[in-house]
TrEMBL record:
<dbReference type="InterPro" id="IPR016181">
    <property type="entry name" value="Acyl_CoA_acyltransferase"/>
</dbReference>
<dbReference type="GO" id="GO:0008080">
    <property type="term" value="F:N-acetyltransferase activity"/>
</dbReference>
<protein>
    <recommendedName>
        <fullName>N-acetyltransferase domain-containing protein</fullName>
    </recommendedName>
</protein>
<dbReference type="InterPro" id="IPR050769">
    <property type="entry name" value="NAT_camello-type"/>
</dbReference>
<dbReference type="InterPro" id="IPR000182">
    <property type="entry name" value="GNAT_dom"/>
</dbReference>
<feature type="domain" description="N-acetyltransferase">
    <location>
        <begin position="11"/>
        <end position="154"/>
    </location>
</feature>
<keyword id="KW-0808">Transferase</keyword>
<dbReference type="Pfam" id="PF00583">
    <property type="entry name" value="Acetyltransf_1"/>
</dbReference>
Length: 154
């Protein structure tokens, strides 16, 4: 097909997440996923255990001093947030939270842990805990900082 016989397409720009077009695009991908990976899609739609949240809270004398927020999906535990009160950092709380998350993950048949973190958020902390860098995006924040993707087989 030469350039003269190619149909002309128009591209429309919108920031709407609720529209018939948005729904149609999602349906096309969902249909493709059903055809390509039916066993995964069956689990995703019918298994109440497909995704489970995890919240770990570290307290000292009733006061919250740190926490970890994660989600289990099948055999993966994705850590989305871990933070420790600045006054309590470097006392092993983060390490304890990570250890407890790994223990919980093993109890719930997870085989992997996953986290993404910024260059200034101490990826070395996760590496010391046995995580391996499996990817990175340079200049993720447009200010020169790299985002790291790390995983650990448990």
């Amino acid at each position: 097909m030469n350039a003269a016989s190619q149909p002309a397409y128009s591209i429309e720009c919108s920031q709407a997440r609720q529209s018939p077009e948005h729904d149609q695009i999602c349906a096309w991908l969902r249909d493709y996923n059903w055809q390509s990976n039916q066993s995964f899609m069956d689990l995703a739609t019918h298994d109440p255990q497909f995704e489970s949240p995890l919240l770990l809270v570290a307290k000292q004398q009733g006061q919250v001093v740190g926490g970890l927020i994660a989600d289990q999906r099948l055999t993966w535990l994705r850590i989305s947030i871990m933070a420790v009160d600045p006054q309590y950092r470097r006392r092993g709380i983060g390490r304890q939270l990570l250890t407890e998350a790994e223990r919980w993950a093993k109890q719930h048949a997870c085989r992997y842990l996953y986290v993404d973190t910024m260059q200034y958020q101490s990826p070395e902390f996760y590496q010391l805990a046995g995580f391996q860098i499996v990817g990175e995006l340079p200049d993720w924040d447009s200010h020169g900082h790299t985002k790291f993707f790390l995983m650990k087989t448990i």
